[in-house]
Amino acid sequence: xxxxxxxxxxxxxxxxxxxxxxxxxxxxxxxxxxxxxxxxxxxxxxxxxxxxxxxxxxxxxxxxxxxxxxxxxxxxxxxxxxxxxxxxxxxxxxxxxxxxxxxxxxxxxxxxxxxxxxxxxxxxxxxxxxxxxxxxxxxxxxxxxxxxxxxxxxxxxxxxxxxxxxxxxxxxxxxxxxxxxxxxxxxxxxxxxxxxxxxxxxxxxxxxxxxxxxxxxxxxxxxx
Length: 224
What we know:
11 helices, globular
C-alpha cells in the first residue's frame, strides 16, 4: 500500500511523465516498479483521470528508448565494462549470470519474452549489444515485446478496474506463459495470412532445385 500511495502521489504531481521517465530509468537498471505503475495507470484510465491510448504511447516510448540506450551501452562498452561498473546500476554478478543463462537458453527471442521475466528484462538490452545482435533484429524483438508488455499491464487496470490488484498478481506469476501464448498465436495468424506467399516462395525454390539437379545430371552425362 505504501508503494501504491507513492505511485499515486507521483501521478498527481507529474502525470504521464511518471510513466515515461520511470520506465526509461527502469531499463537502465535503476529501481522502479514498472509493472505495478502501469497497472495502476491503467486503473486511472478506467476512472477517467488518464487517457488509455496516451498511456500506451508514453509507456511504449519510455520502454523502447530505455532498451535502445542499454543496447548501445552494451555494444560500445562490452562485457568487461558491465562487469566492472555494473554495480553502480544494480547489475550484480548474480543477475549477470542469470541473464547470460537465459540468453544461452533462448537466444535473441529472449529480447521479446524477457520483459515478462523479473530480474532479466532490465539487462536484455545490454546483452543484446554485448553479443552484437544486429540492430534491426534487436529492434524487431525489443519493440514488439515492449508493445505487448505495456498493453498487457496497462490493460489490467483498464479492463478490471477496482479488481486490478488481484488480476495483476495472477498475471504477474504467469506472465511468461501468457506472453509466449500470445506471441505463438500472433505467429500462427501471420503464417495463416501469408500462407499463399509462403507457398509460392517454397514452390519457386523447389523448381529452382529441380532445375539445378537436371543441369547437374546433363553435365555428368558422358559425351558420345
